[in-house]
Amino acid sequence: MSSLPSVPLLIHTIPVLDYIPDNRYVRYATLVSIASFCYCFVLFVYRLYFHPLAKFPGPFWARTTQFWLVKTLISGQNAQIVKAAHDKYGPIIRLTPNDLSFATTSSWRDIYGKDTGRKQFTKTEWYQMVNSGFGEHGIGSEPDIDKHAKKRKLLAPIFSKQAVRDFEKLLVATFDKFTRIVQLEGSKPEGIDMSEWIHKLMYDLMADLAFGEPSGVMDTGGDSYWVNLVNNNINVTAFVEAANRFVKVDFMLKYMVPKSMLSARDEHVARSKAATAKRIEKEAVLKGRSDMISYFLKDSDYKGTSIDEIACHFSQVILGGGGTTATVLTGTVNHLIRQPDLTRRLLQEIVPMFKTSDEILAPALSECTFLTACIKEGLRLMLPTPGGMPRMSHGETVDGHYIPAGTIVYSHGYTLSRSEENFKDANGFHPDRWIDPDNTDNKAASQPFALGPRQCIGQALAWDQMRVILAKMFYLFEMELVNPPENWEDGAETYFTWKTNDLPVAVKRRASAKNDPIWTRVQNKN
């Protein structure tokens, strides 16, 4: 019976080893190197020519390894680099041997929609990081299709039409505080960083809505826990996403993630649970207050839902609704200030409608076509999730191509929204494209709230907030950029979401609103 040759015999039968020094360990190392090279060579050939996704183009290192995408994820220019790859290689590209990015309008429906007879694409393991530490999945991270549907139904009362209208009272109260800070800081020579303070406004508002506990930053003018949480960890999260390409999330969280991030996670989980429990306990004495917990307790079938799960839901609502809305508002403000003719048109629409800023409320603003067009254009350019939303295929077609089970796919919204094939002067801010009936832009390419059963559950709330905040800001203030760069977006970082640049703005009261009652209110609070 024959047997496999021993390693020493192999060493003496490979001719190239005759040229290697007669040292056992050197020859072992050489043999391992040759074997590794041969393995990599065969693997590269397979991935380039015989892999099920071999027909799709992309950068060489993307088609053969994970390293191209890993480098892209941690670069801080994720969306921009992937778009450049699409521009070079086409509408469907490989980001890794097993990842496909689509820059086609039909991919939105195919990947994220729900069509009878089609297998749904599911959320990938990466989303485990979103709920890490809570022990239960929230609305934004639940991978199971049926469980997600139940959780969406559980939270539906919070985002009902009536609830969203009632939440406007907290929005108006928080905006008053924002107005006081903008007036004080914006009058300084260096102006106010509008990006920073719009983010603080939104996180403070969302924390008040979700937990009944504003951070207090709008009263003190200090740091925001929520803003710091995101800014201090967004790039680390990208590192974790990149490392997830090689090791499992649980192992990574235990052995690879910096202790500072784990400490921040544990603090965040404990803080969210405590705030949730405290708000639920206070419901009996807060009758009449309209916030998310009040609607959840009143109209949801929440019996049996753990504090862990409730806290995870509302934590994700804050993180998902605060930063994304703030980014869109900041980008829209930047573009409107840079184009005075657009500001004039906005004022011509809203000023005649309202005697004072107190009358500026969402129901009336929904009829403002130019305001709505400005926000749609802001959503297109500052897409809330520029890095894409990964989904796992279970063996289904996308854009006419069969995608094998286990393949990770994305609709790359940043590329779709910035493509000249979809939008004329795609990087320009042109609200009229959403109004002009003769405009031929492919507007279906812009899907800032996604599609299907997992589309943003809070989009009605986000629309109300953006309309009210934007209208009130321009109604009350004249704004001018301080030492503006040619392009504010240059250098802005893109991960799963945006990390925007500073936006210094000089502010003064608008003459048409000099006698507005809001000035008396905020003056009394100074």
TrEMBL record:
CDD domains: CYP60B-like. Pfam families: p450. GO terms for molecular function: heme binding; iron ion binding; monooxygenase activity; oxidoreductase activity, acting on paired donors, with incorporation or reduction of molecular oxygen. Its cofactor is heme. Heme binds at residue 456. SUPFAM superfamilies: Cytochrome P450. The chain crosses the membrane at residues 25-46. Keywords: Heme, Iron, Membrane, Metal-binding, Transmembrane, Transmembrane helix. It comes from the Eukaryota. Belongs to the cytochrome P450 family. This is Similar to Isotrichodermin C-15 hydroxylase acc. no. O13317. It comes from Pyronema omphalodes (strain CBS 100304) (Pyronema confluens).
